[in-house]
Design a protein that fits this description.
CATH superfamily of the domain at 5-36 and 76-137: START domain
Mean pLDDT: 97
Strand order of the largest sheet: 1-7-6-5-4-3-2
InterPro entries: ASHA1/2-like_C, START-like_dom_sf
Pfam family, one: AHSA1
Protein name: SRPBCC domain-containing protein
Order of helices and strands: EHHEEEEEEH
Structural class: alpha+beta
Helix content: 25-40%
Low-confidence stretches: none
Domain Activator of Hsp90 ATPase homologue 1/2-like C-terminal: 14-136
Radius of gyration: 14 Å
Family: Belongs to the AHA1 family.
């Protein structure tokens, strides 16, 4: 990876639940957006090595949106997923079981060049924090 950004969060739920909520499209549409003026109207995933994922993120007023999509390169069940986005950037998500009811997620991603590193770190963390709140409430 080239000059990656790393973010992490601790979630008070067991690793198997965190894993399922993170990769199951029926849950992804509920949390995969940075702020309340965004939403994720569509999430598709062929969750296997070589499988494709495609998540649509949009402003609720439909004034702007984009697809977050790519391919899954490697899966170690309940441990990590390595993938690459359509623009070639690499993403890794690690799931560390702290105890039976606590899981740490670490996301490592290559930044794109259009936005500052800090803006990307804040945006990705906002989505990860929304995930954290969602999985702890459901």
């Amino acid at each position: 990876m080239t000059d990656p950004i790393t973010i992490k969060i601790t979630i008070l739920q067991p690793v198997h639940k965190v894993w399922d909520y993170f990769y199951n499209p029926k849950h992804i549409v509920k949390w995969n957006f940075p702020t309340t003026n965004w939403h994720c109207p569509k999430a598709e995933s062929d969750f296997q090595e070589g499988g494709r994922f495609n998540y649509r993120l949009e402003y609720k007023d439909k004034s702007f949106g984009y697809n977050f999509s790519g391919y899954i390169d490697e899966i170690e069940v309940l441990k990590y997923v390595k993938s690459h986005l359509d623009d070639g950037r690499k993403v890794e998500v690690h799931f560390n079981k702290i105890d039976d009811n606590t899981t740490e997620i670490i996301e490592i991603f290559e930044p794109e060049i259009q936005n500052s590193r800090e803006m990307q770190r804040v945006g990705w963390y906002a989505i990860l924090d929304r995930f954290h709140k969602y999985v702890e409430k459901h």
